Amino acid sequence: MASSARRKVAARLRISLVIMFFLGAQLTAIVQASEDELSVVSYINREVSGKKILPDFASIQLGESVPEQYRAAANRFARLWKEHVTGIKGYDTVKDVPFTLIVPDKIDETVFGGNKPKIREFLLEHVVPGALVEVKDQNTYLNLNQHPVHVNLSCFDMLMAYEINQSAKVLTKRNITEHLSLVFIVGNLTESDVQSSATNKFNKRNIQETNRYNEPQRLEMKNTTKELASSKENRIGQHLMNFLAGMKSGTKVFQHFFSSSNLSNLMDDSSYMVFIPSDTAFQRWHPIDWGFYPFSVQEFTEMVLRNHFVRTKQPLRMADLRVIHGDQRYKTLGGEYIVLKNKPSPNVNNVTILSDYTLSNGIEVFILSEVLFVSEAVVSRLHQMHKDKETPPLLAFPWFGAQFLSHSFLALERDTRFTQITRFLNTAEIAQFISGSNYTFFVPTDEAFERYSFDLLPDNVLASEKGIKMLLNHFVRGRLYDRDLKDGELIDTIGGMPVKIQRSFENTVRVNSARIVESEVFVYNLGTMFYVDDVLYPDLLKEEVKAITDLKNVDKNVPDSIGGSDVYTTEQNPPLTDRPTTTTFRSLYGLLTTNADVELVPLEVTESSKRNSDEDSSQLQDDEIITPKALPLRYFYNPKKVDFDVVTLRGAAAPIFKRQDRQVQIPFGPFLQSED
């Protein structure tokens, strides 16, 4: 019994020793793995890691030290820092340690809900202590929240640019002092679910605060590449992404397209041959100054990428390709066929293979000198289908700072249906409200303007505050497509008035009462025009139209005996004319383009008046620009057949025509005032 008990105790002891040894080995492995992981990432500012220090820039005016376009962002960051960070406990403010402030272009303070700790954490996330950040590929730093700040070179809108943490594009860097620098970015370094999930309860799009319409809408396809690439179910995508990330140059454009595509949901753990065009291959299709870039069309880019992947049981290596006889034919994931040859040099579909790489998990990568299945004919057909992707030439005229407005104006000027709107655009100063691009313009036809007698309005009315507001009610900030005009939806205009969309079962679309007669007239990639058959909010100029209409009918109030030779003109020596009084008075109101005083003067030409007239004419010829407001407007008349005089009274609303038997006051309205 005693020996049996001893044996049991010894066995238990041996088991305990084995378990302890096993646990110790596991703990050692974990510690070593942790040390290896830390050694992989080398932080440039690791000397100050864990130190609770703050920069001292209270005496520095950040906004005054940067260019004007970044001044608002710098001042906003400085204000928030002063309100929520300066003087917090547990941190020391130092002067001799370098700092870098990463300044977001916009900060939406409403998402914090007045929570000061959240604002403080947000600001500390954007401060790098112990270093003046160098914007170079693969540089990594730690911020004051002990989170990594990684700089990498990426592709934005087909152009290479630096980004931070693969989310915020770097705009510029400015060194303020020897210990302080600013890096301006688009976006921020934090993830805010509040900002991304913000919606409008009232089915009324506030396009000014969102970016939904700033780019052409594409098919609703979930991007799964980044998600699946990091999961165990898609090791192929993960290995390919790691390979592309490790390539210092030459494949950045393909990396950008692949990370933005949906190819990972088509890939499994099979073996693949991947044909990657070089950056130069994509650059060949990029317009030099302006034009159409085919890879700005996402669906086309997605299909091209699929045709560069081949699923196969055994990938063909470069060494095998060099020694085989005959052509090797494969089918791509996109359904096209490729042919690999080794003569005169290794190529695929007669495109030269520049280099090859063999990856783990059965991936063979070939770098190509051209993009497969893209030709001039293909790009030309694609261009006709996607005019909205074409980049425009830069115009210096008529409005350099308003490229959408300038290109729209020039396009409408060539169309005889839009003489009134081009006159309106040319008269009203709205370039400051329609600067840049990404707009939608509802363009009324000439018939729409003539329906309200807007074609009779003088220029000063069109350029007035009411005229500008009415015109701005035809512009929407953000590019809209026909599919975006949904029934019952309200859209804010730049003029401040909303427009309501009505779509019938016959697919007729109305904007307020205006019917869209021509849809989706693309102004390059700057915006969209919709031609409509009615003016939006015409009541804004209702009073002005009434005054002009009364002026048009002025001859109805003139004595019947006045006519024929009683011609009113702005010249002291008018030519002989047989035009009736109605035509004469129509010419009269058409000339009233300013609020200048109008004086009716008997035509008594003397030698002195002729001489003065000649001198005035010579002076006017020397002036290149004479504005209507610079000169008073004077009308001369010659009452030959009728004993008819004109009496003007100070403060009178209109001149009074006085005759022996009666007198008539002509209602010229607010545009005609007496001086004496």
From TrEMBL:
Source taxon at top rank: Eukaryota
Domain FAS1: 237-372, 405-536
Listed GO biological process terms: cell adhesion; extracellular matrix organization
Any one annotated GO CC term: extracellular space
UniProt KW keywords: Signal
One term of GO molecular function: cell adhesion molecule binding
Residues in the signal sequence: 1-33
A Pfam short name: Fasciclin
Name of the protein this chain belongs to: FAS1 domain-containing protein
Species of origin: Anopheles culicifacies
